[in-house]
Write a structure and sequence with these properties.
- The protein is α/β, with parallel strands linked by helices.
- It has a domain at 83-141: Dna Ligase, domain 1 (2-Layer Sandwich), CATH 3.30.1490.
- Helices cover 36% and strands 29% of the residues.
- The chain contains 9 helices and 16 strands.
- The strands form 4 sheets. The chain has a 6-stranded mixed β-sheet with strand order 10-6-1-2-3-16, sandwiched between helices.
- Helix 1 crosses helix 3 (143-155) and helix 5 (216-227) packs across helix 6.
- The protein is globular, with a radius of gyration of 20 Å.
- The model has no long low-confidence stretch (mean pLDDT 92).
């Protein structure tokens, strides 16, 4: 029943680059059949909103042509303030009753007009007669935002057959590569250019998600401001490349100050989680995204939260031929490919 008729391409549309991964089943796992990454011009996407659709569509077209990716059907994802993810508690009911009442129930939890969103849900705990309640994960995304993303994909000559959420794509990639540890509380933290997605898992369940609107761009902007540098030089310096008249040592205190701000937001997220969760422990933090490579970020994260921190390897159990990685190593490609790998694991019509 779940044999996939054809592969889909996971397309992660980020504000600094678009990434694509195509997978196909191989034995008990998967292998990468195509991979690519292509920069997006600055300010084409701001806080998850597509400002310059033509520039983004061009980047997607170049990405597919450069990677020799023929597949037309893609899976994309959204994050940020146009997406609401909430776990809600409802009286125990059948699937059919839930399907009938979910829109009415959702209206109480969603700060947008229910007509303006696409809604999906999944029962995470069916409950029982004794307790009388069940837990349902509710996901709502603004139709307008979905249309913007599917529109640029169509402009690039491709079709979006599934639109997912970054935090859940990350979870898909994590489960395939690391498996599910019952009872373990694992934080998936994806630090992108304009946002940081956090998905807290307890075993195989997502128990808390939040998107923080600060990411790698904040480092570039701080270097521009504090060291009076143009964008290109600040961006290079952020990546550890010295520029004319400025050493990386000059940049280090500025980068650390931004990391402090990011950690403060992560701390708030963990505090929200601990206030609503039955346990306040965190067993492990797994980080991905280009901004997670900022100088000292992982060390500061480890120090602040006292939990083991590791870099997400989306190719841990997914076979990848280095020749497919466009001159990058799996180690270099991994942190930025996690969401795209998770998206490529989706199938049309699955939940």
């Amino acid at each position: 029943m779940f044999r996939r008729a054809k592969s889909l391409v996971g397309l992660d549309i980020g504000s600094s680059a678009v990434k694509a991964v195509e997978l196909k089943p191989a034995g008990k796992g998967y292998k990468v059949t195509a991979f690519g990454t292509e920069p997006v011009p600055p300010d084409s996407i701001v806080d998850g909103a597509i400002i310059d659709g033509a520039a983004v569509a061009d980047a997607i077209r170049r990405l597919f042509d450069g990677g020799g990716i023929k597949t037309k059907d893609v899976v994309a994802s959204l994050s940020g303030n146009a997406v609401i993810v909430k776990k809600i508690t409802l009286p125990v009911m059948t699937e059919a009753e839930l399907a009938e009442s979910i829109y009415w129930e959702a209206e109480q939890y969603i700060p947008f007009d229910i007509q303006d969103v696409n809604l999906d849900y999944q029962i995470v705990d069916p409950g029982d007669a004794a307790r009388g309640t069940m837990d349902v994960l509710l996901v709502a995304a603004k139709k307008e935002k979905i249309a913007d993303y599917t529109g640029v994909i169509a402009q690039a000559g491709r079709t979006a057959v599934v639109v997912d959420v970054d935090a859940f794509a990350l979870q898909n990639a994590y489960e395939v590569n690391y498996g599910i540890e019952p009872g373990a509380v694992v934080v998936l933290l994806n630090a992108g250019a304009s946002a940081t997605n956090i998905n807290i898992l307890n075993g195989g369940q997502s128990v808390f998600t939040r998107d923080i609107s600060i990411g790698g761009n904040a480092y570039t902007e701080a270097l521009q401001r504090e060291l009076s540098l143009p964008y290109e030089q600040a961006d290079q310096l952020k990546r550890g490349v010295a520029v004319e008249g400025v050493t990386f040592e000059d940049a280090r205190p500025v980068l650390r100050a931004v990391s402090d701000n990011v950690l403060l937001e992560i701390q708030k997220t963990f505090d929200f989680f601990k206030a609503t969760a039955s346990s306040d422990r965190i067993d492990r933090i797994v980080v991905s995204g280009g901004a997670s490579r900022a100088d000292g970020f992982i060390e500061m994260l480890t120090e602040r939260f006292g939990a083991p921190v590791e870099t997400f390897d989306p190719f841990k159990r997914v076979t990848v031929d280095p020749k497919k990685l466009q001159g990058m190593t799996a180690e270099d490609a991994g942190p930025t490919a996690a969401v795209a790998v998770g998206l490529a694991l989706r199938q049309a019509g699955d939940r």
